[in-house]
Design brief:
The two termini are 25 Å apart. The protein is 29% helix and 31% strand. The protein contains 8 helices and 11 strands. A hairpin with a 5-residue loop joins strand 6 (117-125) and strand 7. It is α+β, with helices and mostly antiparallel strands and 279 residues long. It has a single domain, classed as Hypothetical Protein Pfu-838710-001 (Beta Barrel). It has an 8-stranded antiparallel β-barrel, surrounded by 5 helices.
Length: 279
């Protein structure tokens, strides 16, 4: 079996675990989800779980928390694609690696299954670990120039961050995954399967070439993220009771550290060795 077929088979199996665990939950529209829990300012907690661990968590939530699942056109899982921008000396990566309390991230995110709708996003980390995400509509594959540079500079200035001009930013990493979004009474929960990374820039491998140089994936692991206020959500409490604690993972920084072993990886080293199988 080819590498691509093996990965596709693993993706399908873990996606089935997620779908089965949420089969009893009612659907919720995107409009209602955004009106109820847009959560652009929030505390994010992330967990990297096996399919069995995800299944156990979803069973607990189904019994206690009345989960509702984002549903668009009868579908409940959607492909996301992101491009992350950084400076030539990888300032945003190094801020994350050094765990700077005040840091930022710039990316584009494309919702592949809903007309390739794309946004340019600026994420900043404020006091007490609160994440602020701001975004504007963008064009698929458009270069970061003009209005995009102005938006990024404006948002970074508003956050009072000592950042270089956005004109210094260029694509560094691309990621893709399938996401299922769940609305709980006290939080939004996302489950990402099939996470893949590839380096961006000249000579980068095709996204359809698993295992090629400059590419990596997390196999059948699921990245679970809770997005709530400062208080832990019902999902967090269920995971803690099961013995899980938040993992340090960044779709940008962990991916880049995985693909660039010359870079510092201290915040994510344990996760990479114990769960991602990296040396």
């Amino acid at each position: 079996m080819s590498g691509a077929a093996t990965i596709a088979r693993a993706d399908g199996a873990v996606a089935e675990v997620v779908a089965r665990g949420l089969a009893g939950g009612d659907g919720v529209s995107l409009e209602e989800l955004d009106a109820t829990a847009a959560l652009q300012t929030r505390v994010d907690r992330k967990y990297v779980l096996t399919p069995a661990e995800v299944g156990a968590m979803l069973a607990t939530l189904a019994a206690q928390a009345r989960p509702r699942v984002l549903e668009i056109g009868g579908e409940r899982a959607f492909t996301y694609a992101s491009t992350y921008y950084d400076t030539p000396d990888l300032l945003t990566f190094r801020m994350a690696a050094r765990r700077r309390r005040r840091r930022f991230k710039v990316r584009t995110r494309t919702y592949v299954d809903t007309g390739n709708t794309t946004f340019l996003e600026v994420k900043t980390r404020a006091a007490r670990g609160v994440t602020v995400k701001e975004r504007c509509a963008w064009e698929l594959a458009a270069p970061l120039d003009g209005a995009g540079l102005e938006f990024v500079d404006d948002r970074l200035a508003a956050a009072h961050l000592d950042a270089p001009p956005s004109s210094a930013l260029a694509p560094v990493l691309r990621s893709s995954y399938r996401r299922t979004t769940v609305l709980l009474d006290d939080a939004r929960l996302t489950l990402d399967t099939g996470l893949r990374w590839r380096l961006a820039g000249p000579g980068a491998s095709s996204p359809d070439t698993p295992g090629a140089p400059g590419t990596a994936d997390v196999g059948d692991l699921v990245v679970v993220e809770t997005k709530a206020g400062t208080a832990p959500s019902s999902a967090d409490r269920a995971l803690w009771r099961a013995g899980h604690r938040p993992d340090r993972i960044s779709k940008y920084a962990t991916g880049l550290a995985t693909l660039r072993p010359d870079l510092p990886d201290h915040p994510w080293r344990r996760l990479r060795r114990e769960r991602l199988g990296s040396a």
